[in-house]
User: Fold this.
Amino acid sequence: MEDKHFKEVTVMTRQVGKMLVITSIVRAAEFILNEWPGEHTEILDIAKHALLECFEGRMSPGVARMAFIEAAKEADIYIEAAGRPPSTGRLERWGKRKPRRRV
Assistant:
């Protein structure tokens, strides 16, 4: 069976100020088993079960990701992803200018 990937989830680790980005069910499971800083609760057990079901192909990676996020929120280690700023309706050129012609 292969590792299944999902949209990144950022969590705090046991080391103060250190964050970790998790993008796969295998890495999420490793984090829960080896590095989980909070207590083991019912929501964490549900997340473990969801990751196992996803690995075995009986659940989508998106659903397993949401279960992992809920457990991380309960443990107060989830970091919200910064959203994109609202569009101004104007295209940014990012410093790309046409070279001036010399006469």
